[in-house]
Design brief:
Layout (H helix, E strand, L loop, with lengths): L1 E7 L7 H8 L5 E4 L8 E5 L2 E5 L12 E4 L4 E2 L1 H13 L8 E3 L4 E2 L2 H14 L11 H9 L12 H19 L9 H15 L6 H9 L3 E9 L22 H4 L9 E7 L2 E3 L12 H9 L12 E3 L1 E2 H11 L3 E5 L9 E10 L2 E3 L13 E8 L16 H14 L3 E5 L7 E3 L1
Parallel strand pairs: 1-9, 1-10, 2-5, 2-9, 5-7, 6-8, 10-14, 13-15, 14-18
Antiparallel strand pairs: 3-4, 11-12, 15-16, 15-17, 18-19
The structure holds inosinic acid (IMP).
The site of inosinic acid (IMP) has 21 residues, from helix 4 and strand 9.
């Protein structure tokens, strides 16, 4: 039996889908524990591109149950669209998808509140995905959330929506009336009808799979540096993206965790605002963006790009309890004559080898780089570590040493088979 956990350890978009895919062959259940439609996982099916936001990518395994944990914020409208796309590709989840009755529901007004708040914040905006994530989690913390089990009572849902509209009017002087939201509200009610079928507690099933010695795959969304507490607050998402979030967002406990796969791009990207010490505002940044096709799967926004940050990687390994590092998009570095890695920071004339106590000052510090030679050749089709060019091996060995954890998987291209396992 093993409970395998896949977590992004940067600012999201690390390419988690690739490792999820390679770990999926013999799983009995796949689950998500946090976030919602702010995530975007691109998967390919018979040459067609499917972008999943709320349903875990492990859905591709037809034998696996899919569980959406109570730590998630569920957007019924988005979920209905994903379900329709899956039906089209003959991947209908039917009796193998369950949404926790205790998950929080996102309504059209959560999205509206997200937009209004971001617009009101002006230059201090977070750069959210505007999917209503923050306002829905705020309701949860305020103990006012609309829970999935409450979707049975449409009168209650209507009252909830009316209260929310009033809130937009009071907080943001929103002048629109209920009637002006008719299309969104109708779509919401229609979607609620569809997803209600899937709302059922799955604690018993999950427990039984674990007790039978089955394999479970837990998919994190976003990345550690967007964690509400461990990330670059306030430029974070509103959930716990770290391993800690698993044990409050899904009905399992920490003694059950076996393998924690920490996913890192071979460089770093970020969407939205907030500090990013190794960001490159130059030709290197542009090269990484173009070569890595760094545009958000959910919003299409260009991603900010920079060098691998080993200081933050050590933090990710420690906080998440990572015991396997997965390096993705290594091939994006193929053409570079030299590659830098941040190994420490300087702040107020002092050197820091970790971020403990200085996360809130990330925007002020200067990275200390080590420069390594590039390999300037294609690495596609290489299936073993030993066959990689010497300088590629040197780069990976350096990352491994600096990140304080073994690199067990290396993704060298977009295709499924472009993955080296050690
Ligand atoms: P929110 O999650 O929509 O509230 O956005 C908060 C911050 O997290 C913003 O900087 C978003 O760009 C970022 N974010 C949210 N989801 C993702 C993701 O899946 N990948 C990368 N960044 C994300």
């Amino acid at each position: 039996m093993s409970v395998n956990i896949v977590l992004g350890c940067q600012w999201g978009d690390e390419g988690k889908g690739k490792i999820v895919d390679s770990l999926s062959s013999d799983i009995q259940a796949v689950a998500r524990f946090q976030g919602g439609a702010n995530a975007g996982h691109t998967i390919y099916r018979k040459g067609e591109k499917i972008v999943l936001h709320q349903i875990p990518s492990g859905i591709l395994q037809k034998a696996a149950y899919c569980f959406l944990g109570h730590g998630m914020v569920i957007d019924p409208v988005g979920l209905q669209e994903e379900l329709e796309a899956l039906v089209k590709y003959d991947l209908a989840p039917e009796h193998r998808l369950a949404i926790s009755p205790y998950a929080t529901i996102i309504t059209p007004f959560h999205k509206e509140l997200d937009r209004l708040r971001e617009e009101a914040a002006g230059t201090a905006s977070i750069g959210t995905t505007r999917k209503g994530i923050g306002p829905a989690y705020a309701d949860l913390i305020n103990r006012e959330a609309l829970k999935a089990w409450e979707l049975e009572d449409m009168d209650l849902v209507s009252e909830f929506l009316t209260r929310q509209l009033l809130l937009t009017q009071k907080l943001y002087q929103n002048e629109k009336t209920f009637n002006e939201y008719t299309a969104e509200i109708e779509a919401f009610f229609t979607a609620v009808e569809t997803i209600r079928f899937y709302i059922q507690d799955f604690t018993g099933e999950l427990k039984a799979i674990i007790e039978r010695g089955g394999n479970i795959l837990i998919e994190g969304a976003q990345g550690l540096l967007l964690d509400l507490d461990y990330g670059t607050y306030p430029y974070v998402t509103s959930s716990h993206t770290s391993s800690g979030g698993i044990f409050t967002g899904l009905p399992i406990n920490f003694t059950m965790a076996d393998n924690v796969y920490g996913v890192f791009k071979a460089y770093v990207t970020r969407v939205g605002n907030g500090p990013f010490p190794t960001e490159q505002f130059n030709a290197i940044g542009k090269h990484l963006q173009d070569t890595g096709f760094e545009f958000g799967a959910t919003t299409g926004r260009p991603r900010r790009c920079g060098w691998y940050d080993a200081v933050l990687a050590r933090y990710g390994v420690y906080i998440n309890g990572v015991n396997h590092i997965v390096i993705t998009k290594l091939d994006v570095l193929n053409d570079l004559p030299e590659i830098k890695v941040a190994v420490a920071y300087e702040l107020d004339g002092k050197r820091f080898d970790n971020v403990f106590g200085i996360m809130h000052r990330l925007g002020e510090l200067t990275p200390v780089y080590e420069t390594l030679p590039g390999w300037q050749q294609s690495i596609s089709g290489i299936s073993t570590f030993e066959d990689l060019p010497q300088n590629t091996q040197r780069y990976l060995n350096f990352l491994e040493e600096q990140s304080a954890c073994r690199i067990t998987h290396i993704s060298t291209g977009v295709n499924r088979e472009d993955m080296i396992c050690r």
